[in-house]
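Late entry, evening session. Most of the bench is empty. Finally got around to the prediction I had been postponing all week. Sequence below, unchanged from the version circulated by S.P.
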Amino acid sequence: MQQKSFLRKHWSTLAMLLIVVVLLVPQTAIPIKVALNRAFAFSPATEDVASAATLTNYDWTLISLDGVEANLSNSEQKVVLINLWATWCPPCIAEMPSLQALYDSYGDKVQFYFITNESTAVVRKFLDKHSYTFPVYLQKFSAPAQLASNALPTTYLIDKNGLIRIEETGVANWNSDKVKGLIDQLLVE
């Protein structure tokens, strides 16, 4: 009877302790954080054309997971989506399904660059586990100043004229009607 009284008296403290423990244990913390991030992912904000920054330096050497060198300059005058991410980042993991869906819809029309600083083996294991097919690159050199970010994830949508139409830090729903509408508009401009 005394144990039942203790539980009734301290149930809120015990519940908070359980929540803290669950969020600190990596095996449970990451899936919970990913689920919470997905629940609060909204369509990213778009930049007004008049106030959008222009990417002036496309010279950025990257390495594909197969070891092939690529340069962002090959995507000049094209619609480009750049996503800076990591496999250990819950907001990055949370937005990946929407980015994969967007890639599935526009992979042949938009230049996609998913860029990470992690090892090829770690990235391949992550991609295989989730059946992601988008192109991933490793940085060989630092990003151009306008694409440099210390926050993950950070995603840029750049139009054919180099205007950064979306610069989003944090989780977002990239497969939204708003984003697809903007991409459709950029492809015909």
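Two things to note before I forget:
The longest strand covers residues 111-116.
The chain has five helices and seven strands.
Will write this up properly tomorrow.
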